[in-house]
């Protein structure tokens, strides 16, 4: 009897909604959850380790991964490649464990095309006004950049209909609790329970 | 701004799986959850009150409810009618609160036709062998009845594919926790969050 497949959880949303913090808290409070490590061709920064922060690869290796369809999604940013290797994700899921990945909206949509059985969760701010406040608080952006990011956030909200769930990041612990409930519920979905169902049906003689 | 609609939770499954106990525990641990009271034409038994255990109605009233499509499902058992009045359910859901009802497989399938937006949860025993033990333990059935009920349970397991979720009743508290996670997750589903999404999108100017 095969174990029930794990679940790929994709956390996404407009930038500035705190999906990174939520992802970290989720990993901390759910020890069996694995974090999907991205591959990149950029050089390691101080303190970054291969297989922890990223899989650091050469451009040649990365292009091979693209051509062999080994990536769930990839993008080129300022001359470097970034992507999500499929093999690592597949392996964990086959072992019956869950994987989370945190990615921008464009990446999430690409992953959904290749991996529709993932659970796609859109993290949103309580309001776009609140998002503006958060971006202002960071105070690392110019007013033009803030305006641009808010404009993007408004446009990105329309992407929500490509997702399965929407979670408001009002308080991080509450948002994490919702995501944990979503994972638990998904494990009970009939679509993911075919092994359980056949086990019960076959248990008449053995039970 | 309208409140988010409540959710109709339908608990069902083969007889003997303990869905009644689960329903009671769920109601106890979730004070805002409402129990859908059935209508019946049978006479009240000692201690039963109208609007608590059942809505006691005349056959004439019941037939009017059938003809006016006021019932989510109904059945005739030993000359008496039993059914689920739609109005009470609709009213609670419109107030943004949730309703649970516990019903046999046939009733659940009928409700799904009229109310596909409900959350249909199939409660199953850990194994059909375990179900046999539970039925034997009750010791209220003849061996023939037990055989018949087990046969039905096996056939009914095929109905699981009409449901959204399957929950194993191994331990009641664990099963109740799963159902609560399902309700919480459903509240985050994009399909049920249109009001939340438009609220966020409209918050740019007001936020």
UniProtKB/TrEMBL annotation, chains A, B:
Its main location: cytoplasm. ATP binds at residues 13-20. InterPro entries: GK/Ca_channel_bsu (IPR008145), Guanylate_kin-like_dom (IPR008144), Guanylate_kinase (IPR017665), Guanylate_kinase_CS (IPR020590), P-loop_NTPase (IPR027417). GO terms for cellular component: cytosol. Coiled coil: none annotated. It catalyses: GMP + ATP = GDP + ADP. Keywords: ATP-binding, Cytoplasm, Kinase, Nucleotide-binding, Transferase. Its EC number is 2.7.4.8. Residues 6-184 form the Guanylate kinase-like domain. It is found in: Cytoplasm. GO terms for molecular function: ATP binding; GMP kinase activity. Essential for recycling GMP and indirectly, cGMP. NCBIfam families: guanyl_kin. HAMAP family: Guanylate_kinase (MF_00328). Belongs to the guanylate kinase family. This is Guanylate kinase. It comes from Dendrosporobacter quercicolus.
């Amino acid at each position: 009897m095969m174990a029930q497949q794990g679940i790929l959880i994709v956390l996404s949303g407009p930038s500035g909604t705190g999906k990174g913090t939520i992802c970290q808290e989720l990993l901390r409070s759910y020890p069996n959850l694995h974090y999907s490590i991205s591959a990149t061709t950029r050089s390691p920064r101080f303190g970054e380790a291969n297989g922890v922060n990223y899989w650091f690869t050469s451009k040649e290796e990365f292009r091979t991964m693209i051509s062999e369809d080994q990536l769930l999604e990839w993008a080129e940013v300022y001359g470097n490649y970034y992507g999500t290797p499929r093999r690592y994700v597949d392996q964990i899921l086959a072992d019956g464990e869950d994987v989370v990945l945190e990615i921008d909206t464009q990446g999430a949509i690409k992953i959904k095309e290749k991996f529709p059985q993932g659970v796609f969760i859109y993290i949103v701010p309580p309001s776009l006004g609140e998002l503006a406040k958060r971006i202002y608080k960071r105070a690392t952006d110019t007013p033009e950049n803030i305006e641009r990011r808010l404009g993007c956030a408004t446009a990105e909200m329309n992407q929500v209909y490509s997702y399965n769930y929407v979670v408001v990041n009002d308080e991080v612990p509450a948002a994490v609790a919702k995501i944990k409930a979503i994972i638990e519920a998904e494990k009970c979905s009939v679509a993911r329970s075919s092994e359980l169902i056949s086990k019960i049906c076959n248990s008449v003689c053995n039970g």
